[in-house]
Amino acid sequence: MSMLQGKTVWLTGASSGIGLALAEALAAKGARLILTARSKDTLNALAARLPGEHQVVPMDLMQPESALAQAQQLAASQPIHYLINNAGVSQRSLALETNFQVYRDLMEINYFSVVALTKGVLPHMVQQGHGHIVTVSSVAGKVGTKLRSGYAGAKFGVIGFMDSLRAEVADKNIRCTTICPGFIHTQVAHNALGADGNKRNQADPDNAGGISAEQCAKEIIIAIEKNKAEAVIGSGVSKLAPLLQRFFPGLVRRMVAKR
């Protein structure tokens, strides 16, 4: 029996990609899901086809102040055992050409929404005596590469936030897990923001050659159940990159500059 069975899991970015695969895998393990994304209709259709009974909470995480207020209300109305901060958007544009507003937007959804939802549920987790905060960062939060300066900056930031949070709540029975996916075969490149803030609508060979969203979800759940502080998920160079960065930073800098 999974430790997730019967537990309430709030999952953001649930309508596509890794989030959709996570929703399916978590429901199969008997978790009760709170599903969040922007489209209410998409979430309702997902909830209807998943086994079990699940709650739909549409939310625009590009508006973190509003998300904080919604999170506080939601956490006050019911116990939340797991929060999985999965929603996010990537980037494919050079720093020299990228509008400043794009950096702001990337920080709002990839960093500030994580802080907002975490702050919304954390006091209630502390009060109930247990809880688990899971945040999906990225290998780009360990190794910055071309065309991702805003995305990498936000993902580096969220790893730092989770590291500090983990230390602060270690004595309160609150667990914190940071997930760093590498290349995953999803629509992340299609949905990535370009220099003008519009979606790129184009595939990346790297992501297209990555592991499936279903395999990624499986490994995320293993990391959660094993209470790992951090897990790097992927294959090939994207999985090795953080290790190489740690021991051979000069080599990684040269590799990144040539790619």
Automatic annotation (TrEMBL):
GO MF: oxidoreductase activity
Presence of the UniProt keyword Oxidoreductase in the record: yes
Ketoreductase domain: residues covered: 7-186
GO cellular component: membrane
SMART domains, per database record: PKS_KR (SM00822)
Keywords: Oxidoreductase
One Pfam family of this chain: adh_short
KW Oxidoreductase (keyword) present: yes
NCBIfam families linked to this entry: PRK06181.1
UniProt similarity note: Belongs to the short-chain dehydrogenases/reductases (SDR) family.
Name of protein: Short chain dehydrogenase
Organism: Aliidiomarina taiwanensis
Source organism phylogeny: Bacteria, Pseudomonadati, Pseudomonadota, Gammaproteobacteria, Alteromonadales
